Structures are given as C-alpha cells and as structure tokens.
Amino acid sequence: YQRRVHGEYTRNIKMVQDIDSLSIPDSLAPLSPALSKEGDSSTRKWTLLHVGTNTNYLLEWVNGTKSVLKLYNFCSKVDHNIEIGVIEVLSEMGLYPKVIYKCPSYRIEEYIESAQLELFDVRKPAMMLLVAELISGLHHNAPLRELVNPLLTSKDAFILNVCKNWLEDFKTQYETIKNKIGESKHKPLIEQLGQLFKKEYQDIITTLLPQGRELVLSHNDISPANLLSFTEKDGHNKLYLIDYEYCALNYRGYDLAVLIEDIVTDYRYPSYPTFKMHNEIKLSGEEEVKLIEHYLKCSGLTASSPEFSAQVTKLKAEVDDCKIIFQLAGVLWGVITNDWTKEYNPENCWRLEYAAARWRNFSFHIHSRFGISILQSKQPFHCCLYRISLSSNSVLYQLLSEQNFSLII
Fold first, then answer.
1. pLDDT in tens, 203-226
2. Which residues of the chain, if any, have pLDDT below 70?
3. Which residues of 281-290 are buried (b: 16+ CB within 10 A; e: fewer)?
4. Environment class of residue 179 by beta-carbon count within 10 Å: exposed (0-12), middle (13-18) or buried (19+)?
5. What is the pTM assigned to this prediction?
6. From CA 217, how far away is CA 152, in angstroms rounded?
7. Can you give the pLDDT at residue 382?
8. Strand partners of residue 239
9. Count of CB atoms within 10 A of residue 270's CB?
10. pLDDT at site 18
11. What pLDDT is stored for residue 293 in this prediction?
12. So what's the pLDDT on residue 252?
C-alpha cells in the first residue's frame, strides 16, 4: 500500500494541480486562509489519507475542526456532477457526510470520526444484511433517482458501457501488449484473453448483458473500503456507504454481485501483489439467497407476497450473471490500466496479477454456467481440498483435471 501511495500514484496528485498552491474558497477563509505543508509547525495542516480515484486529505483547521478534502484524480469513467448530486441528496437524508464546498477539481466534506471496515468485519452475517439494506435503499430511492435523472449522460447499464469500452481498448492494444510481455509468465493470460474476441464469447457476453432488464441507480463499487462505521451521539451505531464516483444506472443485481464476489478480496495486503483473495470466506448459496431475500424485503416486498419467491429466483439469476461480468471487468481493468508506456517487469506488475486472479474466477463461472473451458494454463495450479472425496464424474474433478490442477486428496 505504501509503495502504491508514494510511488505509482504520486504522479496523479501532480497531474491534477500543485497541492502547495491549492486555494481555499473565500467562504472558508475564517477557518483557514490556506493549507500548510504536512509536518509544518503551523496549527493548520493536511494529512494524506488515501490515494485512488480521489486523493483524500484530512484537514485540521485553526479552530480545531476537521474536514476531508477530496482532490479529483481525473478519470474518464467518473462523472463528478452525478456524484455530487447523489451525495448532496443523501447528505440531506442523513445518509452521507455534509458537503461543505465543491468546485470542478475538488470538494470538502464534513469529517466524521469513524472506522473503515475491514474485510472480515463486513463478512459477518449481520453486517452483510446491513450492507444489502443500504444497497436496496439506494436502488429504491425515488427522490434521489428523480433528481439525478437529468444528470445521467447514458441511459444504458454502466457495466455494459464499461465492458464494451474496455474490450475495444484491449482489442486495440492486444498486439502491442502481447509483444511487450514476450515469453514472460503473463503470456498465457494475454493469449487466453484473446479468446474474448471470438464470436462464441461475444455471444456469451451479450447473453449476460441483455437489454430490457430493470436499471436502478447503483453505487457500482461496493467494498469494505467504501463502508464507514461510526457511533452517533445517542449511542446508536450507523453505517455510511461512501465514494459514489461510479454511481450510474446499472442492473440491480450488479451491486449485490460485487458485494458477494469481492467480499473475499483483501486490498490492504501488506506485501506484493498488494491484494489477497480469501476464498475460504466466500458466501454459500444459502447465504446468497438470504442476502437477496433481505434486499427485496427492504424494497417493500413482503415474504408473504405471492410474487416474492419468483422475484427471489429472478434476482438470483441476475446476480449470477453479474458475478461473471464483475470478474470480466476486473480482468480488463487490470490489463487496460497497467501503464504500458513503462518498462514491463513481470515480477513487479500487480495489476496483471490482479487480472490473472479475476480471469481464473471468470473462467470458473463460465465453465459452471456454459460448460466451456477457457483457462488453459501450462503451469500447475495447486489447490487444497479439505477432506473431500471426488468421484471421477464430478464436475469439480473434471474441471480441475481439464485445467491441469494438481489434485491433493
């Protein structure tokens, strides 16, 4: 994490504007006319919190109050007009910190003493249901949707546009990337990704992203890093869903799919490749159904309703489709956002490691759903099977055998 903050991502800060010359609006002058450098002896200071789509700083003002500065690291996939519209409405409803100031390059928000949830905190059953409740509340917030509708630049599903654009980008760069990596360990990954251009896989993607499905206003980046837990003055615990940079219309099953699929990924892993997937905590099928049922109940649909069971089945099928698309988006993100203008080092390329991990998950889902094997690595994958016996005709046995896994039984 420290390497990413002080190395690769540092350039993003300078790309936006010089932090030292950042001016504070006149309306905030009574609090502080300017920011001081980190470590300055002044009573005013800023402290780096996080670098990602935004560069976030904790501001400590002269009068002792604190705020959060979110400096935009301009990203083509982010529409800050939509983001601001969403969070201002949510703020009025008590579902998001107050926005103190906004401008095209940054905004300043109320600082709330809170804890960012860890992976295993969110995985607790009660917390998973609470997150599903937040998602349902966002999806079915009619006043919010009405306000944001005029700001929406696309009426298509967000993930449909993302996959379409990234697939096109990858197709354009394919030969360049292939030549750059040569015979390195990432060669099988890039060659396998080339199969996505075949008609049969294009047809699969079209099947998973159909037109006509209900679209809702979605967060599109549900993760523990975007959940804040804090205690209100009356002692009640509260949970905020933050960072709405990617908020847009999407399939209602997508946010749930991201929650289910990404709950196993630790993005704060201290060593290379800076993430780790804990598949041992993956939700069971029964837990997934309970999550979907709770989401529907929070939307106002009662369990005694005649259509409840059918709605659960319908949404579960949509979530399963969105799981596959989420994994594909992760693969494409890892490859496309890697800086190919720099010298390629196969031993220090965490984005391709991330893409490879997502590709294995995507391939597993594709095989389970369509019976197609696309993971053809020459290198053995070692899998620990916890005291389970596999008959030679079981799906898992056949899948592991086809992919050259080393069976340890």
1. 888 888 877 889 999 999 998 888
2. 1-45, 74-77, 375-409
3. eebeeeebbb
4. exposed
5. 0.81
6. 10
7. 36
8. 229
9. 9
10. 41
11. 98
12. 95
Q: Which token pair is 196?
A: 């996505």
Dihedral, CA of residue 24, residue 26, residue 29 and residue 30, to nearest 10: -150
Angle at which helix 308-336 crosses helix 350-370, to 10 degrees, equals: 140
Q: In the chain, helix, strand, coil percent, each to 5?
A: 50, 15, 35
Residue spans of alpha helices (H) in 8-141: 10-16, 80-92, 119-122, 125-139
CB 266 within 8 A of CB 97: no
CB 373 within 8 A of CB 402: yes
List all residues 6 or more positions away from 90 whose beta carbon is below 8 Å from its beta carbon: 96, 144
Work out whether the CA dihedral 134, 139, 145, 149 comes out positive or negative.
Answer: positive
Nearest to 200 by CA among 368, 367, 372: 372
pLDDT of residue 390: 43
Tokens for 59, please give them.
């501001």
Express each pLDDT in 290-336 by its tens digit.
999 999 999 999 999 999 999 999 999 999 999 999 999 999 999 99
- What values do phi and psi take at 276, rounded to 5? -150, 140
Supply the DSSP string of 110-129, one letter for each residue: E----EEPPHHHHTSHHHHH
Q: How far apart (Å, rounded) are the C-alpha atoms in residues 316 and 363?
A: 20
Cα–Cα distance, 373 to 360 (Å, whole number): 11
Q: Are 245 and 75 in contact (CB under 8 A)?
A: yes
The position carrying tokens 């099977």 is 385
Using an 8 Å Cβ cutoff, are 404 and 377 in contact? yes
Burial (Cβ within 10 Å: 0-12, 13-18, ≥19) of residue 238? middle
* CA–CA distance, 218 with 191 (Å, rounded to integer): 33
Looking at this protein, which amino acid is placed at residue 275?
Answer: F
pLDDT at 26: 52
Q: Cβ distance 215 to 251 under 8 Å?
A: yes
- Nearest C-alpha neighbor of 396 from the set 364, 349, 354, 370: 364
CA 370 centroid distance within chain: 25
